[in-house]
């Protein structure tokens, strides 16, 4: 998508939709962090590099919040993966039930 061709009001509307994840509300929140990543990548230049216009302040807010949400999601996911990989064997059956594949061998 070429953002240069869109008027500023439509840029703001599109940025807001990606921030709130209107499509994710119907299907679940699984892809919301992906939408936040897309929002940050697409609208970073609009928010922080382009000359000032009236909708830019709101776009900047949505881009900052999307980036913060994405970083928080990555931190939580990384923490969970680290804890799970470290303690899976100690959790016994619960760790096995949470595993998609059970590694062979001695833990």
Automatic annotation (TrEMBL):
GO terms for biological process: Notch receptor processing; Notch signaling pathway. The gene is PSENEN. It is found in: Golgi apparatus, Golgi stack membrane. GO terms for cellular component: gamma-secretase complex; Golgi cisterna membrane. Keywords: Membrane, Notch signaling pathway, Transmembrane, Transmembrane helix. Belongs to the PEN-2 family. The chain crosses the membrane at residues 28-48, 68-87. This is Gamma-secretase subunit PEN-2. Its main location: Golgi. It is a multi-pass membrane protein.
């Amino acid at each position: 998508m070429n953002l240069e061709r869109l008027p500023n009001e439509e840029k703001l509307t599109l940025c807001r939709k990606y921030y709130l994840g209107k499509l994710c509300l119907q299907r679940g929140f699984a892809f919301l962090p992906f939408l936040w990543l897309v929002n940050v990548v697409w609208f970073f230049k609009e928010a922080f590099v382009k000359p000032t216009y009236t909708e830019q302040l709101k776009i900047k807010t949505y881009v900052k919040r999307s980036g913060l949400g994405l970083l928080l999601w990555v931190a939580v996911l990384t923490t969970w993966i680290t804890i799970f990989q470290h303690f899976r064997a100690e959790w016994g059956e619960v760790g096995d039930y949470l595993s998609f594949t059970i590694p062979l061998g001695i833990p």
